[in-house]
Model the fold of this input.
Amino acid sequence: MLYHLFEYLKNNGYDFPGSGLLQYISVRGIACNVIAILTALIAGRCIIGWLRKRQIGETIRDLGLAGDEKKVGTPTMGGLIIIVSTLVPVLLFGNFNNVNTILLVVATVWLGLTGFMDDYIKVFRKNKNGLPGKFKIVAQASLGLVVGLTMCFSSQVGFYSKTQTESEEITLSELGDSFTSESGQAKIAPSSIRNEAKTTIPFVKNNEFSYRSLVPFKGRAAEIAEWVLYILVIIFIITACSNGTNLADGMDGMATGVSAIVGATLGILAYVSGHYGFADYLNIMYIPNSGEITVFILALVGALVGFLWYNSYPAQVFMGDTGSLALGGIIGVCAVLIRKEFLLPILCGIFLVESLSVILQTAWFKHTRKKTGTGVRIFRMAPLHHHFQKENPDALLQSPRRLQHENKIVVRFWIISLILAVLTVVTLKIR
Done:
């Protein structure tokens, strides 16, 4: 609330020295990042101690994997650390007049509560199945519907595109003094800011895609169908991201590290999309209010870095569904708000292959069991990260040489995620 407090004081004639720095997204973002890391380190110790006292530990399935026996009883529900450490700096430095900030906070709390309910049922009710899957889907779809309707009706989510007609185009030289290089905000005529069902696609010259092109008819009905289709896509994206992150949370530090890399990349994309100078240079959509997303994302990345202090191998705490469902939801919402959802298959490649491995494994096993009476597996184990993991020495099967220790698999997945993140940013210029 410091941002709004100093805004209020400034409007009433109290201009404190240095308070103007809070106008800059970069300053508030860095402040959020540092405070989030410190909050995670401090709150983490307190929350882990509280969880241990109440014996809120993880129950590990007997998969015959090396090191699993050591994880039994490790505190779970550590996603509370991530959520608290993200929201505290955002409440201090976030701009709550911006609809993007509000939506990201709602996504964090809504899916965090959903994950908390799932962990609560597993830990306190001793039900390993947790919250029924249909309730999770309903929660994720509800959030997607809220985001979709906001994209449809809010005036704050519009964009300016250089692919509009030449008569509507402007350049930096035409903006003159109305363009501020640090904030990147440009005073563009409201008529030039559009709110359409458009998004960014990679490797295409103008790198824009309109959902209207998928509608086979014209007129008012086509406009309604366009937005309905867009909202359905948004629901699917948020649900898929949330579940994909949840599936990737199976090794110490993997979901945390990959999410931090994905989050940092989305923060970069949000910043350049909300900065007219960069958007003009990259020839991408200029989304005037998207810069505030960077402030939230930097807080999230800081919270993840702080959480990794306790979650790295050997983990002192697991994030549980409390953290994983919220993280995936935030990633999906952020990508939708900056109209970069079609870049997610590249950026979130780790989460994508983890999800596909589970789908393929389940589908093929059921198919072969129905056809031959004996189910056949594609992978040794799903999700994919377990396919490469060493087995317990007492397991019946001999471990092939390609199988690795959990820590090495996690680091290699981080490296792959970094490569995908670089490729995602590069797609802005490769067309």
About this structure: The radius of gyration is 23 Å.
